[in-house]
Amino acid sequence: MKYKDEKYEKAEKGSLKVLPKTVLLILLCGLSFYLGGLYYGKNIVQVSNVAKTGSSLDVDNSPQVKSVSFSECSSDYQDYTPCTDPRKWKKYGTHRLTFMERHCPPVFDRKQCLVPPPNGYKPPIRWPKSKNECWYRNVPYDWINKQKSNQHWLKKEGEKFIFPGGGTMFPNGVSAYVDLMQDLIPEMKDGTIRTAIDTGCGVASWGGDLLDRGILTVSLAPRDNHEAQVQFALERGIPAILGIISTQRLPFPSNSFDMAHCSRCLIPWTEFGGVYLLEIHRILRPGGFWVLSGPPVNYENRWKGWDTTVEEQRSNYEKLQDLLSSMCFKLYAKKDDIAVWQKSPDNMCYNKLSNDPDAYPPKCDDSLEPDSAWYTPLRPCVVVPSPKLKKTDLESTPKWPERLHSTPERISDVPGGNGGLFKRDNSKWKTRAKHYKKLLPAVGSDKIRNVMDMNTAYGGLAAALVDDPLWVMNVVSSYAANTLPVVFDRGLIGTYHDWCEAFSTYPRTYDLLHVDGLFTSENQRCEMKYVMLEMDRILRPNGYAIIRESSYFADTIASVAKELRWSCRKEKTESESESEKLLICQKKLWLLENKVTTTTIGSLSFFKSKKIFEESIEMKLSKTLSDYMMYLLIVQPSLMSTVAGIACEAIIASYKSVEEMNENAIEYSSKSVLFQACMLAK
Per the record, what is one GO cellular component (predicted)? Predict the structure, then answer.
């Protein structure tokens, strides 16, 4: 006690060595935490304590997770696509348009704010009316309207965009264009062709027309100067995803689609060793069709409008035909502007090519997994279908709708997969879907059109909802068992994805998200708050989430959802299991506030608004000052007394001025460790 009393007495007498360093340590810690807390502290949630305040279904052993809070992003981020962000394009090369591929931000650069809707946003027009019109303020992009209105992609009428069904190669309407295509490919009429992919989809009029003909299409387009092609498609209620054939494989397994389509999609098919066409070959089912309209098809009559010569276009067509032949495609039909090639339904053609050592492109060796498609580089080789697959070709696949419930051959490639498991899975999801409709009557109504099953196995939920006016994007984790081929074999669509990253879509594009144990399976890899932020980004205002999770995670998820401004309720599963719970959540519609009152005193600004700025100047300033103080503390301790004196005089003076002018100054100063430290030093 004597030692402590002596030390305190010396300090009171004004030691210039102990007190300034103590104060500056407080300054160092307080400056950053205070200014950060000033803007974020009001919305902090202590997730570790949520189990104590839940309903009767709550559990007491929720995971211990760091506190979370989410501010609102600025209006500049209303169309934010984290992994295809035009703000970052200049960082990447232009060769083969690699800058348009997925480039996700590192952890330290991730946005932790809620993406706002555009000003004037309205609930989307409901299906099927939405196929022909949408609200302008929901997708407020004028460039595509001005540039493509003469081709009848869309036109603005009052508060709406109208979609007449035109396109570059079918300006007078997509229906007549598809009628001609059906005449060339009778398999489009009898259920043989069920799944398709449209590369360079425009506003997805082709995919939209095929929906009426029983064909489910994935419309694919990059984020480019056409402004939100994929967002237009999804706003219309048509399946679409952001993507580009560049240097990496598309996120689909081999032998998936029954048909692929390119309508003047501007993809240089014969360049770079034909790797783009080789990728179409990989994802196309044996016996599947590739449809091309536009250059160089019908060059004899069209070349004058293409700013080229007839000789050049003839040469391009011959190169294309030779390349297709080398991949075992055969010209199936051709009329006017449409040409159709069919992929070989068996391996006889590939066996002949393998006997020629000089053949190009060569067959891919066994080191390259055919279904590997998550950040997998394109290679200039032909992926030959496995000879053990006897029923995967288009002719052997059951016709739609029989194929939906027929056991796919490729289920045997899934560890533990077999026909019995497949049938049990079907039955399980019929029961679950019936239970979901009781808990959420909007399922099956026109309120829900775009649905994502975020971690499906065999597409069971999509199959159970197939008769409802909706479609489902089935997502299979790139780290899970490879079940996506089974999904496609059933006549459904989907994609690979890693939920530690953002999905390839625009904000506000899905009406319903379904989760089945995702947080349990991925909790060691993916941080919950980022997954749920991504769910919030892609979910439409007033949209729903059905989250089926272990009781261990349910309370924590509910608390994070509250910070996302979702309303959630907890329900029992259809089996009333105690180990598993259901969260039925709805995202609320909110809009950015336009008015912000700012009072500036010296170098400090106080914002009187519910809007919390994610990256305010003050927070950046606090970081800079803290770093500089740390430098002085370590390298130049003799200067610290002077720095502390100057800093504290300015802070105390600022607070006194603010107290006179700002009614909230007492609230601010009372929470400030920095202010109290300066008063102590004074």
Answer: membrane
Q: Find the mean pLDDT for residues 116-142.
A: 95
Chain centroid to Cα 51, Å, comes to 31
What mean pLDDT comes out for the span 212-239? 91
Q: How confident is the model at residue 627 (pLDDT cuts 50, 70, 90)?
A: low
Sheet of 133-135: strands edge to edge? 133-135, 160-162, 155-157
Same fold, 171-354 and 412-587: yes
Q: Classify domain 412-587 by CATH architecture.
A: 3-Layer(aba) Sandwich (3.40)
Beta-carbon neighbour count of residue 511 at 10 Å? 24
Which position has the token pair 């069709």? Answer: 289
Separation of alpha carbons 82 and 536, rounded Å = 13
CA distance between the termini of the chain:
27
Helix, strand, coil shares of the chain, percent, nearest 5, are 40, 20, 40
Residue 496 DSSP symbol: E
Residues 410 and 558: their CA atoms lie apart, in Å, by 37
Residue 270 CA from chain centroid, whole number: 30
CA distances from 549 to 522, 583, 646 (A): 12, 8, 55
Other beta carbons within 10 Å of 554: 26
CATH topology of domain 171-354: Rossmann fold (3.40.50)
Give which of 590, 518, 589, 510 is closest to 545, Cα–Cα: 510
CA distance readout (Å), 676 to 26, 429, 548, 670: 10, 60, 48, 8
Give the full edge-to-edge strand order of the sheet including 338-343: 240-242, 216-221, 195-199, 257-263, 284-293, 338-343, 329-335
Between 2-11, 173-182, 580-589, the lowest mean confidence (pLDDT) is in 2-11
Q: What is the average pLDDT score of the chain?
A: 82
Of 304-313, 394-403, 488-497, the one with minimum mean pLDDT is: 304-313
β 338-343/284-293 pair status: antiparallel
Q: Exposure string (b/e) for 360-375, b if CB count within 10 Å is 16 or more?
A: ebbebeeeeebbebbe
Handedness of CA 572, 514, 555, 587 (dihedral sign): negative
The string of DSSP letters for 557-621 reads HHHHHHHTTEEEEEEE-TT--SSEEEEEEEEPP----S--EEEEETTEEEEESS---TT-HHHHH
Please report which residue ranges of 112-255 form alpha helices under DSSP H: 143-148, 174-184, 205-211, 229-236
Angstrom CA distances, 485 to 18, 220, 249, 285, 392, stand at 69, 19, 15, 11, 10
Structural domain spans, the chain = 81-111, 171-354, 412-587, 616-659+669-681
Helix (H) or strand (E) holding 550: strand 539-550
- pLDDT level of residue 94 (50, 70, 90 thresholds): very high
Mean pLDDT along residues 344-348: 92
pLDDT of res. 624: 53
